Write the structure tokens for this entry.
Amino acid sequence: MCIVLALISISLIQPMFMASEQIERIAKHRFAREALTSTHSKAEFDSLNVRFVGSYDTPDYAVDVYISGCYAYVADYGAGLRIIDISDPSNPEEVGHYDTPGRACGVYISGSYAYVADEHAGLRVIDVSNPSNPEEASCYYTPDYAYGVYVSGCYAYVADCGAGLRVIDVSDPSNPEEVGYHDTPGCAGGVYVSGSYAYVAAEDAGLRIIDVSDPSNPEGVGCYGTPGYAWNVYVSGDYAYVADRSAGLQIIDVSDPSNPVEVGYYDTPGFAYDVYVSGEYAYVADWDGGLRVIDVSDPSNPEEVGYYDTPGLAVGVYVSGDYAYVADWDAGLQIYQFYGVGVAETTLPDKLILYHSWPNPFTSRTCIRFAIPQVDGCDKPHVTLSIYDIAGRLIRTLVDDELSPGYHWVEWHADNDVGQKVAQGIYLCELKLQARGLHARCTSKLIHIK
């Protein structure tokens, strides 16, 4: 059942005109990525105190992620909601999906329901009690573009771009009803609710603080004009952490919501799109700067303590347990582990692993990542990584060496052992390990397209 505003014929006019602007903005970002990949070398996977764990290449552009139980729920823009089993973080697998009618930009899980901010298609409420067969329970068409959503109690708070913050009663998920709204300046793109306040990242209008103690009458009580473009916000204790695009991470004291004050900031190398705070660390999805880990134990003096230059463009992040889950644009879902400052990476794999290659299918090159286990009595087991065609003929040997236990990667540029480009088609990647009587083998399929 879908509830449509009475003035839908009028309210949809503005989104129709805005659609071309939104598409142009997204397109510019996409073209920027193509420019980056044409010049990036292997350094694009540089890291500090963060290790790669696993990945899943979603079909479209991963822009947001929420973790609940053993599943990652990914807002995959044009491909809707993707549900990925992460019970084994090194080998995530999709178990279900729901193709929303709009463009999935934000997702929040509450109980057995996924609440999806679906751009021009408003708020979609999806029953995920059976992750392998998600079904839409209802929807509510907000007046503008639904970019972000946060659920607290019986209410879904939707960041609805030019229509500000919309408060929707979802006590009956099959019949959502709007009970109040607050017109924020700028474009409401991200929202976080803490206590009686909703914190809205409103792009060029900075951080807006709204009293929602009476959901039917939300009132603005404070604001802070950030120097960049407030894209998303996370609240922990007395502080709001704002992903402020070109201005990096802004840390704002909101102990007095009517008088927010900046106490610190960290200028990330990319564009800060999202932030998640866990313990003493803020994890920032930093566009072409990848995942940045910032120590915020002293909010007035934040310091970067780790990073991983992700293969795509980091736009969303969620931290659960030991892992950071990154919505990495055209590289899908990426999973990482921050293992501490000044500590050697001691968590070694316990088996031979050949991860999903990225991208796959691919045109000119693909990155193949793999893990080598510790073998008793052998410091460096012998490893081969080879590419075969569909007929079983050896095409290229990428690795033939003794490697230390740990995590490794190599690129294949769709060429054979004499440097000639191969034809498009299906290829087999084979990883083999031999050491002191131990023999292990893993394979995966690669698809080369023109």
Remarks:
- Residues 11-19+44-338 form a domain with the Methylamine Dehydrogenase; Chain H fold (CATH 2.130.10.10).
- Residues 1-44 have pLDDT under 50 and may be disordered.
- The longest helix spans residues 13-39.
- The CA atoms of residues 294 and 300 lie 12 Å apart.
